[in-house]
Amino acid sequence: MAAKQSEPEVPAAEGTAENRPQQQQQQIQVDDSKALAGYSNFCRVTGTPEEVILDLGLNAQPVGVPSGPINITHRLILNYYTAKRLLAALNMTIQRHETAFGVLETDVQKRVRTQR
């Protein structure tokens, strides 16, 4: 059973804050009943002058150089405006997580504990 979710949509600003009327947030209905879920620990970002391409997949050997090819399971193609909104949303989400749980170290070598 998929629940419909609403996300606030803020209209584009016109003029300065002093001369525009107070804006109201609009609710957008989202139907995720046909959404496919997947897991990814690999992402490759490429693009064209018009689009950003995100290839997502599973790297079975996440430490070191993989011995075989990484199978791409999902490809998202976004225009640059959507990619920029995604970047802002991801930044906000990561900042909230790090505030609650601590900084995420992305360098695997710094996270690996050596045995003595």
Q: What does this molecule look like?
A:
It is a single chain. The protein is of the alpha+beta class. 22% of the residues lie in helices and 28% in strands. It contains two helices and five strands.
Sum up the structure in keywords.
116 residues, alpha+beta, three-stranded antiparallel sheet, two-stranded antiparallel sheet, 2 helices, 28% strand, extended, disordered N terminus
Estimated radius of gyration? 20 Å
Strand proportion, as a percent range, falls in 25-35%
Helix residue percentage: 10-25%
Number of strands: 5
Number of helices: 2
CA(first)-CA(last) distance: 50 Å
Describe how the helices and strands are arranged.
Layout: E1 5-9, E2 26-30, E3 42-47, E4 51-58, E5 71-79, H1 80-101, H2 108-111
Entry summary:
The protein has 116 residues and is α+β, with helices and mostly antiparallel strands. Helix content is 22%, strand content 28%. It has a 3-stranded antiparallel beta sheet with strand order 3-4-5. A two-stranded antiparallel sheet has the order 1-2.
